[in-house]
Amino acid sequence: DAGVTQSPTHLIKTRGQQVTLRCSPKSGHDTVSWYQQALGQGPQFIFQYYEEEERQRGNFPDRFSGHQFPNYSSELNVNALLLGDSALYLCASSQGTGWEQFFGPGTRLTVL
Amino acid sequence: AQKVTQAQTEISVVEKEDVTLDCVYETRDTTYYLFWYKQPPSGELVFLIRRNSFDEQNEISGRYSWNFQKSTSSFNFTITASQVVDSAVYFCALSRRPGSSNTGKLIFGQGTTLQVKP
Questions:
Q1: pLDDT digit string (tens) for A27-76?
Q2: Are residues A27 and A92 in contact, defined by beta-carbon separation less than 8 angstroms?
């Protein structure tokens, strides 16, 4: 049974560019949440998708957007990248919006 | 507002020592969940435990034990007879109960880096 998978593993971009990160949830899970973890910090909630809709959102600007597909996989898009967007981006999946979340290995984004 | 505080930034112990990681939380909810996650150098967050706010019984799982005290809003984690493989960053987290608004959003502390030396 595959767990949560994320791609790519690492990514290097320059300021002003746009990036798309991908996540496939654990089998049987229908909800995907995204977190940003800056170096030396705890993960910060970006948003959560359930039934292909954004259900709740953390304190992140509109440059951060997402999408959930009918197969429950999800994408995180970040536009107009800033140096401060450099972080580990973690995807978590769950069954429903309130249950235990299983995390993927993350995508390390570096913005130069 | 909800908040989780892990005051210990880094802890270093020698193998076989016992170590306790502190977690203090703030919430206005009467029902909530508390979690501990382990993050090894690979980066993936590994789930360790979830506790419901109504269940204040302490829990033991092998060398791991958790002490939940609602009166002091604390949920501390103890590793007995630590091993080198326990070296990682440990996060305490808080969420609202399923069915409430903003449920499913985990509020994490800053994390405690544990180094266990041989």
A1: 999 999 999 999 999 999 999 999 899 988 999 999 999 999 999 999 99
A2: no
Cβ of A45 within 8 Å of Cβ of B105? The answer is yes
Shortest distance, CA B67 to any CA of chain A (angstroms): 20
Taking CA atoms, A17 is separated from A14, A77, A81, B44, B90, in Å, by: 6, 11, 5, 26, 33
Under 8 Å between Cβ of A98 and B97: yes
Nearest Cα of chain B lies from the Cα of A79 at a distance, in angstroms, of 23
CA nearest neighbour of A76 among A30, A2, A8: A8
Cα torsion for B110, B20, B117, B111, to the nearest 10°?
-10
Q: Mean pLDDT for each 10-residue chunk of chain B (118 residues)? A: 94 97 95 93 89 85 93 95 97 82 82 97
